[in-house]
Specification:
Blueprint (H helix, E strand, L loop, with lengths): L1 H18 L1 H20 L11 E2 L2 H13 L5 H13 L17 H13 L7 H12 L8 H8 L32 H16 L33 H17 L6 H14 L11 H13 L7 H12 L1 E4 L2 E4 L5 H14 L7 H11 L33 H14 L7 H13 L36 H13 L7 H13 L14 H14 L7 H12 L27 H13 L6 H13 L13 E4 L3 E5 L2 H15 L15
Antiparallel strand pairs: 1-5, 2-3, 4-5
Helix pairs in contact: 1-2, 2-23, 3-4, 3-5, 3-11, 4-5, 5-6, 8-10, 8-11, 11-12, 13-15, 13-23, 14-15, 15-16, 15-17, 17-18, 17-19, 19-21, 21-22, 21-23
Length: 659
């Protein structure tokens, strides 16, 4: 840590002229404490890995899977039940994020999991939940995936659930409803789900474990809503679903056997050596279910590996056990090292060199699903998890490369492999000029109107935040501003800017995240930060600063536009706002300094920050995430950038050329 002191002393001398000696010294001390925390918590292999928190449905479905597979463990079930009950709200419901309102699907899944774990319906905690469920329409008002888990145990009629015919596997990728028209996460879930829906299995459970008491009427299944208008996409897809069900009931389905074989082959091919599928819980749970309903025993190699992979996603504390929806070691490591680099930790420090080597070893040189639409682009990206060769993503790849670029460590990653990764990012640009997370031109919004689109997450279109991140990388490698790639990206960002000057955040909550990412990208490529459209964004950020000096935005802002940029101040969101101001050349403005003071005041003695709020996004409005690293890595990054301004820091190991 000695080098930090020397570097900060030099920076402080410059910063004192702008901000005063007390603030500069305090920032330096805060940075040192935060760096010490991260250094102490690095894994011996060179990575960092922190909890990724979502909601109780992920863990409830894990219990359902294990029950369906016949893997009984009362002790484990009791720990899962304890975790679920811990997150029940005072009104008896469960929400999808901290401070959110009761969600009927989450409440039903938690209720059912508790019953499978041995709780009776007369238990007061279940009685409270049941009142909410019945008052809000009962089981028929839950999301499609909740109904599927109920149907697996005979608690909902399979015929009342939309169909996904397994024949979808035979459609050309050029057709709009092929599996490659869906987002990567939907695709990895729907392929195995089509196998499950083809079989429509029912696992017998006792009457006391069932949830028939949650129907809002005496009907076993309530009528499906056809939509309010005579002509609507909802009504259209309901009619299509009826037609598909007629075909499913037919004894003659010429292509069913071929399609089923292709689906099973796809599932087995997409399983990693470690047992994972897609690196996400829905794909892993449904793929395991698909193999089980096709006769694979729990002791068979793919099922056993799949269950072990899920087990590695669990977190066990004392008498509780939960399952994470995903794990984020590459993301955590890349963000942490980038923050440490901005904080002044020398690139030759063992912490940094170990992280460089670990990240370099995770580069993917195998073509994944993305290559179906981009067959001539060579692989070279990074994924989010320890192992996910099929689904590298732009966001992880860009942040990893930004860190490796600053390290200039060619012993870990050669210039050739660095160049290959940059060119993969460039090759994944969409026709609209933007970048998506995992795929290209995956933007058929009609898919979100299908019966399975109730989470509005069937596609992976280009977004401002990912586009901003890609531009930030291209700026680091001196990509020419006059190039076609940059021009198209700038046009995309100008087209997606909101009327108040802000940008929507797809993967972080919400306009604070999107606006920061875009401004950081624009600064990196050398855009004139005095242009009117950029000043409009800066004015928007300033306008929504809270009285305590910080920034905050609720997850509810996705559903309620009146709540945009409004919420309790948080460490991560304040850091984003401060970094956005720094990118716009406003790093010593009153607002930026007040944001820095907020971060200093909220830092704990061990160098960390507290943050109860969820500030990340899985599916906007429907699935929110809390990265436990965000509250620490982003404040450190913001404090480090505050110290370094107006100097730019970083060695360039590769300069891209215009196309």
């Amino acid at each position: 840590m000695d080098n930090l002191h020397l570097i900060h002393r030099r920076l402080i001398e410059e910063m004192e002229l702008e901000c005063g000696p007390d603030l500069a010294d305090n920032v330096s001390e805060a940075v040192k404490k935060s760096c010490h925390y991260f250094i102490q918590n690095q894994h011996q292999d060179g990575y960092w890995w922190f909890e990724l928190e979502s909601n109780v449905t992920i863990t409830a479905e894990y219990l359902m899977l294990l029950t369906f597979a016949g893997i009984e463990d009362k002790a484990r079930n009791a720990k899962i039940a304890k975790y679920i009950l811990k997150h029940q709200r005072p009104d008896g419901t469960w929400a999808i994020y901290k401070g959110g309102k009761g969600d009927i699907s989450a409440t039903v899944e938690a209720y059912f999991a508790l019953k499978l774990a041995g709780y009776r319906e007369d238990h007061f905690r279940l009685a409270e939940a049941r009142r909410f469920i019945l008052a809000n329409g009962g089981l028929a008002k839950t999301r499609v995936f909740t109904k599927i888990f109920l149907a697996l145990f005979g608690q909902y009629d399979w015929k009342a659930i939309p169909s996904v015919p397994v024949e979808i596997m035979l459609l050309s990728h050029r057709l709009p409803f092929s599996i490659y028209s869906f987002s990567s996460w939907a695709r990895a879930t729907f392929v195995p789900l089509s196998v499950v829906l083809d079989v429509k299995p029912v696992k017998a459970i006792t009457k006391h474990q069932g949830v028939r008491e949650l129907f809002a009427s005496d009907q076993a299944v309530e009528p499906r809503d056809h939509g309010d208008h005579l002509f609507s996409w909802k009504r259209f897809f309901v009619q299509i679903d009826k037609f598909i069900k007629t075909i499913e009931d037919s004894p003659v389905r010429l292509f069913r056997k071929k399609a089923l074989a292709k689906a099973l082959r796809w599932i087995l091919e997409h399983q990693e050596e470690t047992g994972d599928w897609g690196g996400i819980q829905p794909a892993m749970v449904n793929s395991t279910l698909a193999l089980l309903v096709q006769g694979y025993d729990v002791s068979s190699i793919p099922v056993h590996k799949g269950l072990k992979a899920l087990e590695r996603f669990t977190i066990e504390r004392d008498d509780e056990l939960c399952l994470q929806s995903c794990i984020s070691p590459v993301w955590d490591t890349a963000l942490t090292t980038l923050a440490l680099s901005w904080a002044g930790l020398r690139e030759t420090h063992p912490v940094m060199t170990n992280a460089c080597q670990w990240l370099a070893d995770k580069q993917i040189f195998r073509k994944g699903d993305w290559s179906v639409k981009k067959p001539f682009v060579e692989p070279g990206g990074w994924a989010f998890e320890f192992v996910n060769n099929w689904y590298p993503d732009i966001d992880d790849t860009a942040v990893v490369l930004m860190f490796l670029n600053r390290c200039n460590d060619q012993t870990s990653l050669s210039i050739g492999n660095f160049k290959r990764a940059v060119e993969w990012v460039i090759g994944m640009q969409g026709k609209d000029g933007g970048w998506a997370a995992f795929d290209t031109d995956n933007n058929l919004n009609l898919l979100n109107r299908t019966p399975f689109g109730d989470l509005e997450a069937m596609i992976d279109p280009s977004t401002p935040d990912i586009t901003g991140r890609a531009l930030e990388l291209l700026g680091c490698v001196h990509y020419p501003l006059s190039g076609k790639v940059i021009k198209k990206a700038l046009k995309f960002l100008k087209n997606t800017q909101e009327k108040d000057g802000l940008w929507w955040g797809r993967w972080g909550v919400n306009y604070i995240y999107g606006t920061w990412s875009v401004l950081a990208g624009l600064r990196s490529i050398g855009e004139d930060m005095t242009k009117p459209y950029i000043r409009k964004a800066v004015d928007g950020l300033r306008q929504f600063r809270n009285p305590d000096g910080g920034w905050g935005e609720s997850c509810e802002s996705y559903a309620n536009s009146h709540l945009r940029m409004r919420g309790n101040s948080t460490a991560s969101q304040t850091a984003w706002a401060v970094m956005a101001l720094i990118a716009a050349g406003e790093g010593t403005s009153k607002e930026a300094i007040e944001g820095i003071r907020f971060l200093l005041a909220r830092q704990l003695p061990d160098g960390t920050w507290d943050e109860e709020e969820f500030t990340a996004t899985g599916f906007p409005k429907h699935f929110m995430i809390k990265y436990h690293n965000y509250r620490n890595c982003f404040p450190l990054m913001a404090l480090g950038k505050f110290l370094w301004q107006p100097k730019e820091k970083g060695a360039f190991v590769y300069t891209a050329e215009a196309e």
